[in-house]
Amino acid sequence: MGGRACLLAWVALAIVFATGNAHADAYIIDSHTAMVPEHGELRLSISAGPEGSVLTGASLGLVDRVMVGISYGMGEVLGRGDLVPNPRPGVQVHVLLIDQPNFPAIGLGFDSQGHGRWLEGYDRYERKSPGFYGVLTQNLLVTSYELLSSISGGVSFSTEPNRQSVDFFLGASQSFGRGLSMLLDYDFALDDDAGIDANRGYLDLGFQWKFGGGNHLRFLLRDLVGNYKGEGNVARELSFFYLVHL
After folding, report:
1. Phi, psi of 195 (to 5 degrees)
2. 202, 192 in Cβ contact below 8 A?
3. Distance of alpha carbon 162 from its chain centroid, rounded?
4. DSSP per-residue codes, the chain
5. Model confidence at 192, in pLDDT bands (50, 70, 90)?
6. CA-to-CA distance for 167 and 165, rounded, in angstroms?
7. Which end of the chain has fewer CB atoms at under 10 Å, N or C?
8. Which pLDDT tens digit goes with each residue over 3-50?
9. DSSP β-bridge partners for residue 43
10. How many CA atoms lie within 13 A of 140 on its CB side?
């Protein structure tokens, strides 16, 4: 209860005392925020995780309201086994509907990129792709200390097999100045009927360092509560993001 109370207090402070929605990332870890990249901002990413998996992606901001992206990954890229390519690329489309001072921003989108290994027998990823989603984001900026808190929450509807129902997600980030941030994601995974999880949801923790005008490096600890039955251990992942202004 103590952890939930702290999270609720953080949300309340962000909503009550926010002075406006400062520029923030389009993602926490996997969960989307309502925000989009600036117009002409191209975000290139590459992540390396368990079983030698590598996921690459590119997303582009348009007219300060729209983001379009594409992603693709493979397993066993780092290692000795045969490459295991994902069967298809992921596609992302996101629209920032409302972004007004002192109110949560609202976004809608579609994302077909799941995470973890592709499970051929289930025709899906270990973790579902969000599919269609709606999300609210509130940012709290303390300009004197360059501290930015961001809280997001949303609802999604995945189109993958065994997951075609409503799900919920939460995300939070806290910057500490000098480009350092802590990230927290929680996917309730209420829509997973495949029997491969322990019904605890997926909790992820990340540490981020921004440098060089928006580039950033992330170290992630995934599935802290051991929800995925296939492994049951915390997964480690390293991600790098490079920003280009077109």
Report:
1. 75, 20
2. no
3. 21
4. -HHHHHHHHHHHHHHHH--S-----SBSSSSB-S--PPTTEEEEEEEE-GGG-EEEEEEEEETTTEEEEEEEEEESSSSSS--EE-SS-EEEEEEEEE--TTS-EEEEEEE---EEEEETTTTEEEE---EEEEEEEEEEEETTTTEEEEEEEEEEE--STT--SEEEEEEEEEE-STTEEEEEEEE--TT--SS-B-SS-EEEEEEEEEETTTEEEEEEEE-TT--BTTT-S-EEEEEEEEEEE-
5. confident
6. 7
7. N
8. 444 444 444 444 444 444 445 689 999 999 999 999 999 999 999 998
9. 59, 243
10. 16
Name the residue with tokens 């870890």. 29
145: Cβ–Cβ under 8 A, 6 or more apart, which residues?
177
> Whole-number mean pLDDT of the chain?
85
* CA pair distance 181, 74, nearest whole angstrom: 28
Cβ contact 163:124 at 8 Å: yes
Other Cβ atoms within 10 Å of 126 Cβ, number: 21
Classify residue 73 as exposed, middle or buried by CB count within 10 Å of its CB (0-12, 13-18, 19+). buried
What per-residue confidence (pLDDT) applies to 124?
A: 79
Q: Which domains does the chain have, with CATH numbers?
A: 2-245 (2.40.160.40)
Instruction: Using alpha carbons only, give the angle 115, 197, 161 rounded to the nearest 5 degrees.
Output: 60
